[in-house]
Amino acid sequence: MVCRRCCVSVMATSLEDLRSPLFWRGVLAEFLGTLVLVFIGCMSCIGWEASYSPTVVQIALAFGLSVATVVWAIGHVSGGHINPAVTAGMLVTRKISVARAVLFVVSQSVGAVTGAGLLKAVTPIHARGPLGATTVNEHLSPGQAMGVEVLITFVLVLTVFGSCDGGRTDLKGSAPLTIGLSVTMCHLAAIKYTGSSMNPARTLGPAVLMGIWEEHWVYWVGPVLGGVIAALLYDNVFAENSSLTRFLSRNASSSGKGRRHPEKEERHLEPVDGEA
């Protein structure tokens, strides 16, 4: 009965989303946001001459600042996911409907391919190279590469949930900038390992345009798994209104009520005047 009720609730929410013009505005925002991310981020990977190669710092800053800028621009419209891994995290914690999750991922994927297509169109043939495609370092196994993507995406999605926790009162800075900095940090660390995708759509765009599919599954399984783990952990353990927080609060309250007060009991047992 409970499962059936949950399914009906999710289906109703999905149908409500599909009927809402605001929902489709969010789908469009995810398309444009991911387009910009892939276009600008992958543009920073282009090497114009044989003697020139973009630096790790350059690429990390381009992707991190792109994410921060896009989230700031469309966060109020769609939440600024621009990443199927973030969307998967939001889905498993029941913050969005199934319909919203599916169409957001489709929109992000199409936006990424479009962004990569625009980049290819404006880049001279001799300078295109792999068009910023992410590939696994030849010294890593697919399992190691997936582990790297799981961990760096875990960091990103944990940061997203922590920055957007409405129950926190200690947040004073910019949530989009915080999220962008987590992307920059992970790029600085992991570019040499896997290209530091952290985002299946970001990898999909250049892969479609340039036909680079080696170990492509790593860039879907790794980020989605890392995003789901981070989302569940934060929502159930670290969030201000998490299940663990509520459980601990109830236990503390119960133990406080059930605690015995010896001084009161002694006072109650003392004989009243005239009974000695």
- Determine the mean pLDDT: 88
In oligomeric terms, what are we looking at?
single chain
Element order: H for helix, E for strand: HHHHHHHHHHHH
User: What is the structural class?
Assistant: mainly alpha
- Please give the largest β-sheet: none
Describe what you observe in this structure.
The termini are far apart. This protein is an all-alpha fold. The chain contains twelve helices and no strands. Helix 2 packs parallel to helix 5, helix 4 runs antiparallel to helix 5 (98-122) and helix 7 packs parallel to helix 10. The longest helix has 25 residues, at 98-122.
Summarize the model shown.
This protein has 276 residues and is mainly alpha-helical. The chain has twelve helices and no strands.
Labels describing this entry:
globular, 276 residues, mainly alpha, single chain
List the helices and strands and how they pair.
Elements: H1 2-19, H2 21-43, H3 56-78, H4 84-92, H5 98-122, H6 125-128, H7 142-163, H8 175-194, H9 200-210, H10 218-238, H11 243-258, H12 262-269
